From TrEMBL:
GO terms for molecular function: ATP binding; GMP kinase activity. Residues 5-187 form the Guanylate kinase-like domain. GO terms for cellular component: cytosol. Keywords: ATP-binding, Kinase, Nucleotide-binding, Transferase. It comes from the Eukaryota. PROSITE patterns: GUANYLATE_KINASE_1, GUANYLATE_KINASE_2. Pfam families: Guanylate_kin. Signal peptide: none annotated. This is Guanylate kinase.
Length: 201
């Protein structure tokens, strides 16, 4: 399969800028890519629409989807459930678009055990201080939720440091620079991977 056709799995700590990069990509290329719209039990944030960012479902519906084997992968994150449905990914493939998944680390592990064979791209913050500032600045999380997400971020970064987990790393320091690299990866062009910063501040 040509590398352009392989799905792209985007992961990285909450607040690092994944949605921001994706939004730009989909605005610049409205027909090339298909976002794997996940199911989640978390409440929509202001401006989020059912079927666009997520399928927002109650916990009992999520459980019943698990029982029906509807998910390629699913995980608990910060007190809510998230999952990638087989049907959604198939739909994107049928449209002839490159499928892009935005998932956390437990999902990455499960995808590695599946037949999907994607390219794995990790988006790293330049520092933990910057990540904290972005999570707080987004204004969508309570203080407790920011703390939870930062604690999970440390685990995600530890996992990303393991060899062969990700094919590529982009440090989202300057957004324009990160976007140019991200666009190349999405279009199947070669880039030189960034080096994961120490992130121990
Ligand atoms: P994620 O989808 O990874 O959780 P978001 O895309 O929601 O993260 O970004 C979190 C916040 O950080 C948003 O308010 C966004 O505007 C901001 N942000 C994204 N990239 C950058 C950047 N390179 N520099 C500064 N702020 C950024
Ligand atoms: P948020 O609540 O900020 O939208 O997302 C929280 C985390 O859940 C992010 O790291 C995001 O990548 C991840 N996520 C979103 N959808 C899925 C999914 O379908 N599966 C998994 N495993 N993680 C997901």
């Amino acid at each position: 399969m040509a590398s352009f056709a392989r799905p792209l799995v985007l992961s990285g700590p909450s607040g690092v800028g994944k949605s921001t990069l994706l939004k730009r990509l989909f605005a610049e290329f409205p027909d090339k890519f298909g976002f794997s719209v996940s199911h989640t039990t978390r409440a929509p944030r202001p401006g989020e629409t059912h079927g666009k960012e997520y399928f927002f479902v109650p916990a009992d519906e999520f459980k019943s989807l698990i029982a029906q084997n509807a998910f390629i992968e699913h995980a608990e994150f910060s007190g809510n459930s998230y999952g990638t449905s087989v049907a959604t990914v198939n739909q994107v493939h049928e449209q002839g678009r490159r499928c892009i998944l935005d998932i956390e680390a437990q999902g990455v592990r499960q995808i590695k055990a599946s037949t999907l064979d994607p390219v794995y791209l990790f988006i790293s913050p330049p520092s933990l201080a910057a990540l904290r500032a972005r999570l707080q600045g987004r204004g969508t999380e309570t203080d407790a939720s920011v703390q939870k997400r930062l604690a999970t971020a440390l685990k995600e970064i530890e996992y990303a440091k393991e060899p062969n987990v990700h094919d590529l790393v982009i440090v989202n320091d300057d957004l324009d620079r990160a976007y140019e690299l991200f666009k190349k990866v999405a279009l199947g062009e070669q880039i030189t991977s960034d080096v994961l910063p120490p992130l121990d501040d």
